[in-house]
Amino acid sequence: MIGRLFLDHPRTLGMGWAGHGAGAVVIGMRMIGGGVACLVHAAVPALFTETAGRTIMSLHAYMTRRKAAAPDPQAWPDYEI
């Protein structure tokens, strides 16, 4: 049960638990930041006019680099999270 919950998925990507977790934290925090910027933009349209788009483009580039650097990039899904 522990292996299924914590280790199986990272292993399918050729990663350990900590490396997978660190990547997920980076992606999650950037998504939260972009989401907050969108909420502020909804209230004050002059603010954060390009933040969501830049966040998405940046996250895509980050995830593409992680996939390319993986031991077996073909084993990775198109979207890792």
| Total discrete domains | 1
Mean pLDDT: 90
Helix proportion range: 55-70%
Number of helices: 4
Briefly note the structural class of the backbone.
mainly alpha
Q: What are the low-pLDDT stretches, counting only 5+ consecutive residues below 50?
A: none
Provide the succession of SSEs: HHHH
Total beta-strand segments = 0
Strand content: under 5%
Largest sheet report: none
Q: What separation lies between the terminal Cα atoms? A: 21 Å
Judging from the principal axes of the Cα atoms, what is the shape?
Answer: elongated
What's the helix and strand layout?
Blueprint: H1 2-6, H2 8-12, H3 17-43, H4 51-69
Helix pairs in contact: 3-4
Key features?
single chain, 81 residues, mainly alpha
How does this structure look, described?
The mean pLDDT is about 90. The protein has one domain (about 1-75). The relative contact order is 0.14. The protein is an all-alpha fold. Helix 3 runs antiparallel to helix 4 (about 50-70). It is built from 4 helices and no strands. It is elongated, with a radius of gyration of 16 Å.
What is shown here, in short?
This protein is an all-alpha fold.
